[in-house]
Amino acid sequence: MIFQTGSQSHGTRQLDVENSESELRDIGLSTIFEKVIFVEGSGDQAVLEYYLRDKNVEIKPLKGSNEVVAAFEKISNISRYIHGSKFVFLVDSDNKPEGIFENLRALNPDFYDSHFIRLPCHEIENLFLDEKLFKKTIDKYLRVQGNEASSPSEASIRKYIVEKARESLPKVYKKECSLLMQRVVERFFAPCIWGNKDFDWSTAESVERQLTSEVFTEDNTENLFHLLSSEARQVYNNYENINEDTLLSKCDGKQVLGKCIWYYSHKAGVQASAFRNALYNHAYSNRAVSMTKCNT
């Protein structure tokens, strides 16, 4: 990694460079890394390390999308001082509202467009919920055993995957409702408390008095209840009549893929870990999973 400095304003630029290096250290990087992909956790790391094991790429697992977004914001702010390095920020869509990504892109549109990947599905594991992919993987093992006649049909595999996807929806509802409700609560209380320039912060007693008399009034409480209920109802309505393809894109991918791999690995007579690697290999061979920014 090469940090660019010029002869003019050298002192200021040197300070910027030092600050940039400090920012990188804060997120666990150093100047020895030339290609880094930030991901939400170990699941994403395992998938990408399988595909990029010969690419000399550092996969940096963080703790959820908020940390990936924070890393993007930090590096976006210092990107003009960094040369010769490539960063990719990969986040699950987690069915997040579109506005979250629009606001993030507005910080640095060029850097966002060339370095940020929002998966087109709930999680990276959703990309592998494909009956053809499972069928090829199962047949590979049954063929070796001379037992192809016992191979399940694509239709039956599809039915099983969809069944597990529907079973995962309560977890999806919880995640989506939680995210939307957090935003409702923040918008609701901001003008009443921390965004209220007349709010008296002089003593704990004054804060308690205002919370009782001005914030948690009967009208405000009822209004907040209706706002939260409306958001929750909308989430459930969105899933009421979705088709199977949309369901497989929006379900809890980690949970569903794990259950499907466990089930079909037993049918194929192999360890789940071996089945998972074979599944990834078939997906890669057929380019079922493609993320061009990760391959640059």
UniProtKB/TrEMBL annotation:
Domain DUF4435 span(s) in chain numbering: 36-145
InterPro entries (UniProt xref): DUF4435
Entry superkingdom: Bacteria
Classification via Pfam families: DUF4435
Protein name: DUF4435 domain-containing protein
Lineage: Bacteria, Pseudomonadati, Pseudomonadota, Gammaproteobacteria, Oceanospirillales
